[in-house]
Amino acid sequence: MGEPMGLGISDIVFGEATPEQRQLAWQLNGAAWAPPMSLDVYVARETYLSRQELSADGRCRYWVLYLKGYPRQIVASCETTRKPVLISENGVAREGHGYAIASVYTNPAYRRQGMAAFMLRRVQEYMDQDSDYSVLYSNIGGNYYSNLGWRVFPRKQVTLTVLPHTILGHGNRDKFALKHSQPWRIRYLRLDELPELCDIDELDLSARFDALRADGKTHVAFTPSWSQIAWQLARSEFIAGTMFGRTPMNKGAITENGRSWVYWEHDWRQTRLNVMRIVHALDASVQQRVGDIKALLEAALAEASAWGLPKVLMWNPDEETTLGCKAAGNAHPIDVKIVFEERTDTSIPGLRWAKGKDARNTVWEDNLYYCWC
């Protein structure tokens, strides 16, 4: 392990953050990441998220570098959340664990000295002890983290933009202009309905992995657990409660026959609705799935318009989802614009196998927004 430039190893200490250091790290990175929230609200949100099921009881660990002898002088920080995963190797499926790394931040006073790289190499040592792999989402391009061992994976996305004449804004959210072309095809989902649907989704994904055949590649996926979905919803709800004094009731939508459903989160910072995941019954035909995707995305567009959010975002759409997106756009030809593109500068996914195992023959199944944290 190489020494950081500028500061020597004898000048810094790496370790798990104390409660005080955790607060200091949030205050430090909040200067850049808090808006449109105040710094105090941002720290309160991070504290709230640390108590969610996904993060609590040591499942999320907070790491810091600090100056030796000055534990309040944070040099760099990050967090790691341990999650259940599915792995299929040579046609044999098994359960495992993976880490999601987030909030990598270096104190501006110590940048360009290799501090974050030094910290992440130490974090790798800890993660490698009790996990199969780790992932992160880079907002600084793919090269930096690739050089540290995280291989860049596909980062395609589709954005459905509700055009300005359709958006009515927060004050008119109950009288939004964009309406579903076939409202009888869906109903909106409430929070208390989601845990059971997540359980069904987990079982279906496990069945998919059991059915995978040996193809010379290793297939992986994060489990779409209720704790994961609930964490993202809690993040959105906290901000909505602060900004608007109320939270959205609709957490997704389901088709009238219960065959397909979607989870979404309201992203107030990026002013968009993020589609976390669309779920289909395993026995649905291609035509049925495309029709369901169309209906569910129309519901997402209506929800986005209701809250004054101009965009609906989805990661890595497959062929069926692409067709469903186009169908949803065709139902609103003058109200919706659809763009398919590749992310080049934000949320670029990278995966690193524990102990540096080669990731070139790895297929990341369902690399969707629900994985993010």
Main beta sheet, described?
9 strands, mixed
Q: What is the beta-strand fraction?
A: 25-35%
Net shape: globular
Average pLDDT: 93
**Category from helices, strands and their pairing:** alpha+beta
First and last CA, distance: 28 Å
Supply the number of helical segments.
8
Classified by CATH, the class of the largest domain is Alpha Beta
Low-confidence stretches: 169-175
Q: In CATH terms, what is the architecture of the largest domain? A: 3-Layer(aba) Sandwich
Q: How many runs of DSSP E, i.e. beta strands?
A: 16
Total tally of structural domains? 2
Helix content: 25-40%
Specify Rg, calculated over alpha carbons: 21 Å
SSE string, helices as H and strands as E: EHHEEEHEHEEEHEHEEEHEHEEE
CATH superfamily of the largest domain: Gcn5-related N-acetyltransferase (GNAT)
The name of the CATH topology of the largest domain is: Aminopeptidase
